[in-house]
Amino acid sequence: MIFTETELPGAYVIDLERREDERGFFARTWCANELAEHGLDTRVVQANTSWNPQQGTLRGMHFQRPPNAEVKIVRCTQGAIHDVIIDLREGSPAYKQWIGVDLTSENRRALYIPEGFAHGFQTLVPDCEIHYLVSEFYTPSAEGGVRWNDPAFGIRWPDDANPLVSPKDAAWPDFDG
Fold it and tell me: Which residues are catalytic?
């Protein structure tokens, strides 16, 4: 696994370290030892899949509040998404900053998202499947979110003119932090 820290401290892009031959390649997608060597949380208690048939689907921006704050490792296993995270850790030098990373079934890239970050994505093509490894169990009472188009962040989405957004995600209030 190849770890590249993003401009948001603690968030990493994880690329595969391929072992290739005439049959194709083999690569690790998860290794607790390698994550721990980078000081990253290795606890996984839940794995989730999101399937999205329509291009332009936008899910987010979600997080869980402490004590149920979660780390996520997100990979697109089919199709292509623009994955976005926002640093919501008060006191962080990157507080309220965001980045977007394209995760595709072709680049096989993953994004490590630390506790205290909001997460969301928009599908770039039809028929996308996303796989999550999560460090905490989903806890409805700890659920939080910020609106995908909140001016406090100024996220630039690939298709912000007409995204398919759930009523719940569209209704998050303006960020007040």
Answer: 62, 132
